[in-house]
Protein 1
Amino acid sequence: MSTDQSLPQLPCILRYKREVAVVFMLLGGLNVGLGMWLLFLGEFQFPLILGCLIGYIGFGYFTKPIAAIHPDHVVLYNMLGREVRSYSLETFSDLQFQGRQLYVQQGDALKKVRLSPWIIHAKDWQNLETMVRSQPQLQAK
């Protein structure tokens, strides 16, 4: 049995930034409050519906990952937690950074992984950068 300490790091789960989730939750709460106030005044309560939707989006930012990096593939998720895109890897060294953008080498083509570092939790992004730049020898299964 191998004692390689790099394997337990995978899958690397990338979460949304907490600040984005907090902003959505606050906006959702504000809209719910406004909707309740209008409902009590006997007015149209559309902000109540909108606030619940915005709050749900904010809750999704708190609980759902944006992506997962596995030894043999990269998976991107939507806010409902469903897989929307997957990139296969022959070896872990197929993952590359150019600047702050992540790419996947697939054959002769270099494909951009649709992840924006500004929306990803900073510590998660930093861990991914460190892992990709320092351990390209990790082989996919």
Protein 2
Amino acid sequence: MQEFYNQTYHKRNNINIDKGLLMFFWGLTVTFFPIGGLIGTLLARPLADHCGRKNILLVNNFFSVTAAVLSCCCKAVHCYELVIFSRLVIGICAGIACSVVPMYLGEVSPHNLRGAVIVVAHFFIAFGVLVAQALGLHVVLGTRKGWPVLLFLTSIPALFQILLLPQFPESPRYLLMQKGDEENARKALQMVRQREDVEEEMEEMRMEDNMEQTEKRMSMCSLVLCQSQQWQLLSVIVMMLGQQLSSLNTIRYYAEVIYLSTGVQEDNVRYITVTISAMVIFITTITIFVIDSSGRRVLLLTGFGICSVCCILLAMALELQSTIAWMSYFSTAFLIIYVIGHSIGPSPVPSVMITEMFLQSSRASAFMAGEIVHWVSLFLTDMLFLHIKIGAESYSFLVFFLICMSTYAYIFKMVPETKKKTFVEIRKIVKDHIDGCLRK
């Protein structure tokens, strides 16, 4: 793609692009995605609360298709600005989806399957990454002629959603508690449960509606200032910071160097990356089946615990690699275990916790807060980790050890188990747990 930037610039100006200017354009291409994600997050709460979860997801496909068309056409019209702008547009799409998809799934799923249903969304994110990496190989579409086609393929899931999503109901909780439409809420609930008798769940939703009368239409500012919600909000911020600042995005800077140090040919590195992405899907599948039995807290603690240990071991192995040749194999092993640990809990579970720790009218604002942390952290990680790596070399993983360990300690102390509970029950569990922790 950088070659396309250079060729387009040369065609316009009859000179090759300056390396500094090329890096500036490439930096815009990279950073516009999290910036778009942040914009999408800011749009998600008001749109989800005013238009409905289903409707905003339907409209969101417009951003995906638009970005795909812009990316596909850029080479034909010799305009690299379209690529840069498309990154902003697809970022907006991702920002809305990251907030609204788990929110919608959490609200339509039964409480005994809620965790699994929400993690299924993360499974398909991992599956999308795998497909993109596989299609991006040089033998497929990762070529000078193939990359516009590869970028256009992002429109296919959006087109499927445009066709299929209208057949699905709106969130029954949204209809009852935020629109006051009990009749359509009952019809929607009957549709997703595939049975006529849904009175027990309707009564549970009425109880939640009565409980949150003081929290109706709570904005993010109101959520921040609400004393009864501050610890839940802090928990969201800590989990999202831990997720992103210990993220799989950070290890990609070292992954290629580690693979090459084991003797792997440079052309084969991408095949290893695809294999590890397939492993992430396998681990996420296991998480789907165990999250509602083992619980959310156990998976979070296990994941952050594994990542903490691997950060220490990676720092040691990378430091010794220059003097002990076979240590590179241990570096690769620790890297893979790190990915497994992150896929167990830190990657998929925080969105489940955000859904469950807040009642209906404050849930969209909670997702907004969590996703702001997500996208800002992603931006900072992309921009700052390279400088940390250059300054600290292998010891940069000690920074991530501190992040993982701090997140582990907070979850161990302050975050209760919420599996197989209604939202009303979870509110009481969280309040009692936090009160108990603060009294100690």
